[in-house]
Amino acid sequence: MSVTANIKPSKAVDRVAIRSWKNPILLGVLALFAVVVFALLGPSGDATFRISQDSDVWQVPNLVLPTKVFGIVVALLCVGLAVTAYRQMKQEGRIAKWVTMAFAVVFVVGLLVWIIGGTKTQNITLVGLFTGAMLITTPLVFGSLSGVLCERSGVVNIAIEGQLLAGAFTAALVASITQNAFAGLLAAAVAGMLVSFLLAAFSIKYVVNQIIVGVVLNVLVSGLTGFLFEKIMKTKVDGVTIYNQPVHLPDLPIPFLSEIPILGPMLFRQSIIGYLMLILVAAIWFGLFRTRWGLRIRAVGEHPKAADTVGINVNRTRFLNVLAGGAIAGVGGAYFTLVAVSSFSKDMTGGLGFIALAALIFGRWNPIGAALAALLFGVAGNLQSILSLAGTPIDGQFLAMLPYALTILAVSGFVGKSRAPAADGEPYIKG
Amino acid sequence: MSETQTVKEPTPPAKESQGSQVFREIMSGSAMISVLAVFVALVIGGILIAVTDPRVSASSGYFFADPGATLSAVWSAVSEAYGALWRGATYDPTARTWQGQLGIFETLTFATPLILSGLAVTLAFRAGLFNIGAQGQILLGATFAGIIGFQMQLPPVIHLLAVILAGAIGGAIWGGIAGFLKARTGAHEVIVTIMLNYIAVSLVLYLLKNQLKAPGSTNPISAQMHDTALFPLLLGPNFRLNAGFILAILAVIVVAWLLNRSTLGFEYRAIGANPKAARTAGMLVSRGYTTVMLISGALAGLAGVAQIAGTEKTLDSDIAGSIGFDAITVALLGRSKPWGTFFAALLFGAFKAGGTSMAVNADVSIDIVAVVQSLIVLFIAAPPLIRSIFRIKAVRREGASA
C-alpha cells in the first residue's frame, strides 16, 4: 500500500522533469538558420544532381532544382516543424519522433542543395557522392558495430581505432604473404580479437579503468604497427617491398540489384566485406532486440547484478562480446587494405575509430541507428573532399567538424535523448 | 595517491615502526610497481627489437648449431638500441658536436609540454574527470598564444606575459566547454573531449587557411612569432631549452599546492573520491566540474604556449603532435600526483629525445617508444599483473578495499 503510494507522485514528478526544452530550442535555432541562409541569402541559379552514370543500363534524368525557391520551401518546412515541436512539447511534454526525423531530413537536403547551388559548377554526381561515401562508411559501420556489442554489454570501447588499425595492418601483411585475400580477412578478424582480448583481460579481469585501457591500446597498436611497418613492410626483397602488396578482394556485383540507380552502385557492387556489413547490421539488430541472447546482453549492460541473480555469467558475457566486437572491427580494418587502398601506411585509419564511436553514440547504441549515422558521416566526409576543389560557400573544415559537433549535441541532450547502457564502463565485481 | 589514502584510513597500522613501514611501501607499493612496470615494458620492447633485427634472424637459422651466435646477435641488437636511447637522452660522448653530446637538455625540452599537459590530465583526474582533450586544448592554447605572438606588437616582457595568458585562456575555453556540458547536461567528458579534439583541428586548419595564414605562404602555416613573444633560451643559442621549463616547474608547484593545501583542491579530491558524498557535504559538484576543467584546460593551453613560444615558433595544425595523448600516459605513470607527473614527463621526454638518436644510430624506428610507453601504463594500471609476474605480496591495507 505505502509502496504504491510512494511511487505514484514520484512518477508524476519524473514526467514534469522530463519535459526538456533543449530539442525545440535547437530546432528553432536551426530553422532560423534555414530562413536566413537558405532562403534569404540563398544563391540564385539551379543546382543539378546527376543521378545516372553514362554506363548505367537505366538512365534517370538529372534532377535540377532552382536553388533560391527550394531554399525558401525548405526554410518554411523547417519553421513549420519547429513550431510543431514547440507545441507538442508544451501540450504533451514530448515531441513525436517523426517531427525530429522529418526536420533532420529536410534540413540536410536543404543544406545539400544550398551547398551545391553555391559552388561554381552547381552540379554534383550523386552516385559519386554516395559510392565514395561508402569508402568511409564501411569501416565506420564495422567500428560502431564493435562498439555496440561491447557497450551494450557494459564495456566502453575506446579502442575501436586500435582494432581497425590492427585489422588493416594484419590484413595487408597476411594477404601479401599468402597471396590470398580471404586469409588476410580472417587474419584481420583475429588481430582485432587480440586487441579486444587485451581490452577484456585488463578491464574485466584486472578491473583497470576501461577508458584508460582503450586509450593506451590505441597508442600501443599505433606504435606496434608503425614499428613493424618500418621493420618488415619496408624491407625490400630484390628491390620490391613484398610484404605490403596485399591481394585485393574482388567486387561481386549482384546481377539485378546493382543496376538500381544510386543504391545499386552504392550497396550492390561491393566486395564481400560490404555484403558482410549489411548482413551484420541486420543480424546484430535482430540478435540484440529480438532474441534471448540479446536480452541477456542488454541485461548485463543495464543491470549486471540483476543479470547475475538470474544466473547469467556477467563477466563471461562481457568477455565474449568484447571478443566478437574485436573480430568485427578487425574485418572493418581489413577493408582499408583489401578494398579501399592498395597498401598499408602508418596510422592509415586516421581517427576513423573515433568517428565510429561518434556514430555509435549518435545512433543511440543501436546497430541500425549507428549504420545510418555512419552513412551520414561518410557522406559529409566525402562531400568535404569533393567540394575542396569546387569553391563552396561553406568551408570544407566545417563539414569535417559535423560528426563531432553532432555527437556533442547528442550526448548533451540537444538531439533526442542519447543514453548509454546504465552499467556502461562499470566493472562488475561479484559479491 | 598517498594523500587520498591517508584520508581514507585515518588510523594506519600502528604496530610497525616507521622505517619498516616505509621499506615495505617502497618494496611492494606503488613506486616499486612503477619501476618494475618500466622494466617489464623495456624487456618486451627489447624482444620486439631483437625479433625484427636482421642479424638475429640471420643467425637464428643455425640456432641449434651455434646458439651463442644468436644470443650475441640479440644482445648487440638490444644493447645498441637501448644504448643509443640512453645516450641520446642523457650524454653521448661519441656525438660529433659538443651540443649533440648533451642530450639531457633535449630531454628537458621535450619534457616541458609533457609536464604541463600531464598536470592538466592529473588535475582533472583527481576530480574524477577524464580529460582526453588535452590535444585540443593544447591546439587552442597555441592558437590563442600565436594570435598575440605573431599578430600583435607589444613591449618585450609584456608581450610574453600576454602570450602566456592568451594560451591559458584558449585552453581554458576548450576545457571549460567539456566541464560546463558535464555539469549542466551530464554529457560524458570523455566523449565531449574526444570530439572537441577533432573540432579543434578543423577549426585551426580553417583559421590557418584564412585569417592566420602567413602572408605569401601556400601552406596552412602561420607567420613566425615575434622575438619578444618567445621564451628566452636558458642555455644560449646552442640548446633549445627555454624558460618554458621554468614555467612548467612553477606549474607543478602551484598544482601541488592547489591539490594538497587549498580548499579548492580538497573539494576536487572529495568530488573525485565520491561525488555524492561531496554533494551531501555541501560542495557544489557541478561548479567543481566546470572550474576543474577550466583550470585543466588552462594548463594544457600552457603546454601549447610552451610549444609555440618555445620550440616551434610557428602555428600549424600539427603543433600538438602526440603530446595530448602522451599526457594521459604521463599522468597515469605519475599516479596522478603533481611531482609524480613531473618525473614521468622527464622519463617520457627522455624517451622522445633518445628515440630520435635511436632511430638514427641504431636503425630502430621511434615507434618502439610508443609501444614501451603504452606497455608501461598498462602494467602500472594493473598492479595485480606486475605482482603476479614478480610474486610480490600486496601490502595489506585495512579498510582500503572500500
From TrEMBL, chain A:
GO CC annotations, alphabetized: plasma membrane
Signal peptide: none
Keywords: Cell membrane, Membrane, Transmembrane, Transmembrane helix
Source superkingdom: Bacteria
CDD domains given in the database record: TM_PBP1_transp_TpRbsC_like
Keyword hit for Hydrolase: no
Membrane topology reported for the UniProt record: Multi-pass membrane protein
Cell location: Cell membrane
Residue spans crossing the bilayer: 25-43, 63-86, 98-117, 123-142, 154-175, 181-204, 211-229, 272-289, 319-342, 372-392, 398-416
UniProt GO molecular function: transmembrane transporter activity
Xref: InterPro entries: ABC_transp_permease
Tagged with keyword Cell membrane: yes
Protein name according to UniProt: ABC transporter permease
Automatic annotation (TrEMBL), chain B:
Membrane protein topology class: Multi-pass membrane protein
Superkingdom of origin: Bacteria
UniProt entry tagged with the keyword Membrane: yes
Record-level GO cellular component terms: plasma membrane
GO MF, one annotated term: transmembrane transporter activity
Pfam family, one: BPD_transp_2
Organism (species): Arthrobacter livingstonensis
Name assigned to this protein: ABC transporter permease
Subcellular location: Cell membrane
Main localization (coarse): membrane
CDD domains: TM_PBP1_transp_TpRbsC_like (cd06580)
Listed PANTHER family: ABC TRANSPORTER, PERMEASE PROTEIN, GUANOSINE ABC TRANSPORTER PERMEASE PROTEIN NUPP
Keywords per UniProt: Cell membrane, Membrane, Transmembrane, Transmembrane helix
Residue stretches spanning the membrane: 31-51, 102-125, 137-154, 160-181, 190-208, 239-259, 289-309, 366-386
Transmembrane is among the record's keywords: yes
Region (Disordered) residue spans: 1-20
